[in-house]
């Protein structure tokens, strides 16, 4: 098969060209630091909700396959637990472990999966996305608060109750511009109504703008990501995130009898580079901020090769 027409090449090239364009714009300061936050707000508060709501507004609950959730999250939590145990029960260890399992399913994953596998694949991906942050951010928050509580007890200080922490994390992850429009769109679909054209068309246009703007924004962020002094630990995080994570998800999904397009989407989703939300943990708990930023940038850069490899292997092992 001609490389220029190979499905993996055809779907990956636009994604990484747009990231490269954003990187160039960032290096040349065409998009200033002060504008990045505004662009991020535009993507997360307007474009993503429009895309997610419109996509899920035509999906009926009885058509959803929830088995992918039973494959993705137990595998992710197992990798999380093993990496924490490997590095030790401390703040830096938990943040690094979160970086090893938290995928960039939205900014990169949605566009890539749709380009590579079509609209039907988005239903499987968005099923995972709907509870991705809710599950992993809640677990990460609780584990980090347990670490903080242990440190507080060791220093003779009082610490908040673990149930209070869990509830706060759950609410923060649920009332969020990603799971909320997915659940709202799914609820709308169950009414049997269709979106009026005057509503559907603006949502379609906003959703179409999401892909290119979000990928350019990823590139701009990479242009401002320092890697000095963090190569060794960042490479370990990237190895687990980009390679071990998709292997773990793929093996569990195969064990559960998941095949075909859902299996491929799950493995490719797990192979996505590290998501930016991990930096929020590093920032909040004042630990490993430089390492987290470096690992995120390196994971995204290496994804050009690792995601290509995963997609090629899945095309060979699990032909659609």
Biggest sheet, open or closed, and with what strands and sense? none
Number of helices: 13
Helical amount among residues, as a percent range?
over 70%
- At CATH level 3, the topology is Na+/H+ antiporter like fold
Q: How would you classify the quaternary structure?
A: single chain
- What is the correct CATH architecture? Up-down Bundle
Given this structure, which CATH class is correct?
Answer: Mainly Alpha
Distance between the termini: 17 Å
The fraction of residues assigned to DSSP E strands is: under 5%
Sequence stretches where pLDDT stays below 50 over 5 or more residues: none
Protein name: Permease
Keywords: Cell membrane, Membrane, Transmembrane, Transmembrane helix, Transport
Membrane topology: Multi-pass membrane protein
InterPro entries: Mem_transp_PIN-like
Question: How would you describe the overall organization of this protein?
Answer:
The protein has 320 residues and is mostly helical. It has a single domain (3-317), classed as Up-down Bundle (Na+/H+ antiporter like fold). It is built from 13 helices and no strands. α1 (7-27) packs antiparallel against α13 (289-317) and α2 runs antiparallel to α9 (197-223). The longest helix is centred in the middle third of the chain and has 36 residues, at 119-154. It is globular, with a radius of gyration of 19 Å. 42% of the residues are buried. The mean pLDDT is 85.
């Amino acid at each position: 098969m001609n490389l220029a027409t190979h499905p993996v090449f055809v779907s990956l090239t636009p994604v990484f060209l747009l990231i490269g364009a954003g990187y160039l714009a960032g290096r040349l300061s065409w998009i200033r630091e002060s504008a990045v936050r505004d662009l991020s707000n535009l993507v997360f508060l307007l474009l993503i909700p429009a895309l997610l709501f419109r996509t899920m507004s035509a999906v009926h609950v009885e058509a959803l396959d929830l088995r992918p959730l039973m494959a993705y999250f137990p595998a992710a939590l197992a990798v999380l637990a093993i990496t924490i145990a490997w590095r030790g029960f401390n703040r830096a260890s938990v943040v690094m472990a979160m970086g090893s399992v938290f995928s960039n399913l939205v900014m990169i994953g949605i566009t890539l999966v749709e380009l590579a596998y079509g609209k039907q694949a988005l239903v499987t991906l968005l099923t995972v996305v709907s509870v991705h942050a809710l599950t992993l951010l809640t677990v990460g928050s609780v584990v980090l608060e347990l670490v903080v509580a242990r440190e507080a007890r060791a220093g003779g200080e009082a610490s908040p109750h673990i149930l209070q922490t869990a509830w706060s994390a759950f609410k923060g992850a649920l009332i969020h511009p990603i799971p909320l429009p997915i659940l709202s769109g799914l609820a709308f679909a169950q009414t049997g109504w269709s979106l009026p054209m005057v509503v559907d068309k603006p949502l379609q246009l906003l959703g179409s703008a999401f892909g290119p703007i979000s990928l350019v924004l990823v590139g701009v962020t990479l242009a401002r990501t320092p890697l000095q002094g963090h190569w060794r630990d960042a490479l370990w995080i990237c190895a687990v995130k980009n390679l071990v994570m998709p292997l773990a998800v793929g093996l569990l999904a195969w064990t559960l009898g998941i095949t075909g397009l859902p299996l491929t989407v799950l493995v490719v989703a797990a192979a996505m580079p590290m998501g930016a939300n991990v930096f929020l943990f590093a920032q909040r708990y004042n630990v490993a901020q430089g390492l987290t930023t470096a690992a995120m940038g390196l994971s995204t850069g290496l994804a050009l090769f690792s995601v290509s490899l995963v997609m090629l292997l899945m095309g060979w092992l699990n032909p659609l």
